[in-house]
Structures are given as structure tokens and as C-alpha cells.
Specification:
single chain; mainly beta; Porin; twelve-stranded antiparallel β-sheet; 39% strand; globular
């Protein structure tokens, strides 16, 4: 299904992680604490991805689990997860949300030709602190950018849906380098704080480094009222954009 794919025509990594989170929460009957995915191969339509859940350890308050995703017997990605909740009288939140315009005052992210019909086409996005694609002129950025993301109608900000919104370190790498790039995730780790009925989620992307063809960074996910919902981190392969792979060129979807 192209609607679950990235602009490169393969399963969007965040969708794979989100599906695994949804399944492992149902199997264990416990809410997610954290999950990490290692992406091994691409899955492209019309492939069917099968998820196998193994609750490796079940304790009094938490479970350790593993999810294997396969297509025709070949392993596509692996997810490790911890699930559960413990009562504790203390809590706190020390992350700081960036001071950026709200969704109504932010610039809509244009739909490039290669994005049509993909997961990106199903998520409304507005650039709070980021450059448009045509503004990436080779001048490096600060390493930090942010955009508002609205989930499709009827979906709330659960661990599974936040895994999708958290898969935007590759977007931030292009912003940090100041140039269009092709990038695909090697991994994606979601550390879940709380669910929320937020209409808009702020993806606050912080790129740490790009070297030797690989980039590293994290994403803080915020509700409109400044509540921290989750954090995500990734490493990805970074490739130079060539004229043949420039998404600004009109092409039929694959």
C-alpha cells in the first residue's frame, strides 16, 4: 500500500515501528515504555509484512518483548520493546520546547511529486522553523528545525502514531546540511511519555552530526500546549541528491 510508504516507494520506517508497537501492546496487554527498530531490508508494495511477537520476559510490572517483521520469510526489520507501568509518587519534565509559531502561523509544507500518495500525503505538515525545499541553498543550518504534523482524522497521539511522527531525523539532516539529500533510516527508537488527544504535534528535530555518509539525531514530540509526548532518535544513511533523483522533478509514482 503506497499510503504507508516513503517518497522512495518503500515502507516508511515509522509506520513499521508503529505497527509493531500496536501489536506488542495488544499481545502483552501493557503500554509501551520504549521500542527500538533496526531496519534490515526494504518492503515495497504489494508485499505483505507479517509480524511475529515474542514476549521474552513478563515481570510483575513490565514486559520485555521482541517483534520480527518478515516478507515471504525474509526478515525486514526487528523491534525490541519494554512495556509496563509502575506507580511512583514523583514525576517531572525537564525538556524545553522551542519557541516557534503555532500551526496557524506556520508555512504549509508543499507536496513534492515523489510524495504524492505516500504517508507524507496523509499527514498535514507546517514548517515552524525550517526551510522550504527550494530554499536549501547549501548554507548549513543550526542543526535544529521543527514542523507541526497533524495526524489523519480520528487518530490520537498514541505510542504507535508518535512512532510515525518521530521518523523525521532524515528531514532534519537536509535542513542541517542546507541541501536536498536522500536518506533512509537505519534505526528508530521511541521513548514514550504519554498519549494525548492533540490535534497538532510539534516535531522538534535536533541533528547531532553527519560524517562518513551517516547522520545522527533525535526528535522531541510536543503537544500544542507544550506537553512532552515522546522522544525519538535515529541514525540514517545520507546520500547526495543527484539530478536523476531530484524529487522536484515530476515522475509517476512507483
Amino acid at each position: 500500500m503506497r499510503g504507508l510508504c516513503s517518497g522512495q516507494g518503500a515502507l516508511f520506517g515509522g509506520c513499521g515501528l508503529g505497527a509493531a508497537i500496536e501489536v506488542v501492546e495488544r499481545v502483552t496487554g501493557r503500554p509501551l515504555v520504549w521500542a527500538t527498530a533496526q531496519y534490515l531490508q526494504f518492503a515495497r508494495p504489494p508485499a505483505v509484512v507479517e509480524l511475529e511477537v515474542n514476549e521474552v520476559v513478563r515481570g510483575h510490572f513490565s514486559s520485555q518483548a521482541r517483534v520480527l517483521a518478515r516478507v515471504d520469510g525474509d526478515e525486514i526489520f526487528t523491534v525490541l520493546a519494554t512495556l509496563g507501568r509502575r506507580e511512583l509518587p514523583w514525576s517531572g519534565e525537564w525538556a524545553v520546547r522551542p519557541d516557534v509559531p503555532g500551526p496557524d502561523a506556520s508555512t504549509s509544507r508543499p507536496m513534492l511529486p515523489h510524495m504524492r500518495g505516500t504517508i507524507i500525503d496523509r499527514l498535514e505538515m507546517r514548517l515552524a522553523d525550517a526551510r522550504l525545499h527550494d530554499e536549501l541553498d547549501g548554507v548549513p543550518g543550526t542543526g535544529r528545525c521543527s514542523m507541526w504534523v497533524r495526524l489523519p482524522r480520528g487518530l490520537e497521539a498514541t505510542a504507535a502514531t508518535l512512532a510515525i511522527v518521530g521518523d523525521y531525523v532524515p528531514f532534519g539532516i537536509g535542513q542541517a546540511l542546507g541541501r536536498p539529500i536522500w536518506s533512509n533510516s537505519l534505526d528508530n527508537t521511541l521513548r514514550f511519555v504519554r498519549a494525548d488527544a492533540a490535534e497538532w504535534i510539534l516535531a522538534d528535530v535536533r541533528v547531532h552530526a553527519v560524517l562518513d555518509g551517516f547522520g545522527h539525531g533525535l526528535v522531541h514530540l510536543w503537544a500544542e500546549d507544550g506537553t512532552l509526548l515522546a522522544t525519538a532518535s535515529q541514525s540514517s544513511i545520507v546520500r547526495e541528491m543527484t539530478p536523476e533523483r531530484d524529487p522536484r522533478q515530476e515522475r509517476p509514482p512507483t
